[in-house]
Write a structure and sequence with these properties.
about 45% helix, about 20% strand, four-stranded mixed beta sheet, about 200 residues, 8 helices, five-stranded parallel beta sheet, binds guanosine-5'-monophosphate, Rossmann fold, alpha/beta
Length: about 200
């Protein structure tokens, strides 16, 4: 099973890139996180996130229900173990759209996980995209930009850097990473063992 983690400075267009990859590969499933953030206008509970009260989130966390969780811009976000187990049972791969703290923790839990950081072309472009969303207040934009500067530092420790200057090129880069993941020895173990058992 491939665990593909993508992180980015908020406003880099990571969710759009993720959506394109998910549309291409039926075997790749989006990891749906829990969050205490209020839903945005277009967001659907259970599809974009499991929207959860802080009390419920903290209860789940105390029950060790999360493989990782983190606080981001004042809200809690977490990846449920049961969701990962479900994907493993269904034989599908997971794409995680999470923050850098979550990525580091998930990589500890699943060392084979691939960490990809999507780089924006410039800070001016990040600010423009955040504003264009129309869902963020000025305070939230400022918070996300400040968080973005810190997140970029974490990019140094990632396995891959994807440049999102042109959407198509960025999707192609992530596509390469995902396809190569299926060529890893761990993913091809069954083929290797079959050949080894044949003798010759
Ligand atoms: P947003 O509020 O814009 O949907 O997400 C804010 C940040 O939280 C993004 O960087 C997003 O990737 C991250 N995030 C979403 N789900 C999770 C999660 O389950 N765990 C962690 N650690 N971060 C998450």
């Amino acid at each position: 099973m491939v665990h593909l983690i993508i992180c980015a400075v908020s406003g880099t267009g990571k969710s759009t890139i993720a959506r394109h990859l998910l549309d291409r590969y039926p075997r790749l499933r989006l990891s749906v996180s829990h969050t205490t953030r209020a839903p945005r206008a277009h967001e659907v509970d259970g599809v974009h996130y499991h929207f959860t009260s802080r009390v419920e989130f903290e209860r789940l966390s105390a029950d060790d229900a999360f493989a990782e969780w983190a606080e981001y811009a004042g809200n809690l976000y977490g990846t449920a173990r049961s969701m990962i187990d479900g994907a493993a049972r269904d034989g599908v791969d997971l794409l995680y759209d999470i923050d850098v703290v979550g990525a580091a923790n998930l990589k500890r839990a699943y060392p084979d996980a691939l960490t990809c950081f999507v780089l924006p072309p410039s800070w001016a472009e990040v600010e423009r995209r955040l504003r264009a969303r129309g869902t963020e207040t000025e305070a939230s934009i400022a918070r996300r930009l400040a968080a973005g500067r810190r997140e970029l530092e974490a990019a140094r420790t990632f396995d891959y850097l994807v440049l999102n200057e042109q959407l198509d090129a960025a999707v192609a880069e992530l596509d390469c990473i995902y396809r190569a993941a299926h060529l890893r020895t761990a993913e091809r173990r069954a083929t290797l063992e079959r050949l080894a058992a044949q003798g010759g």
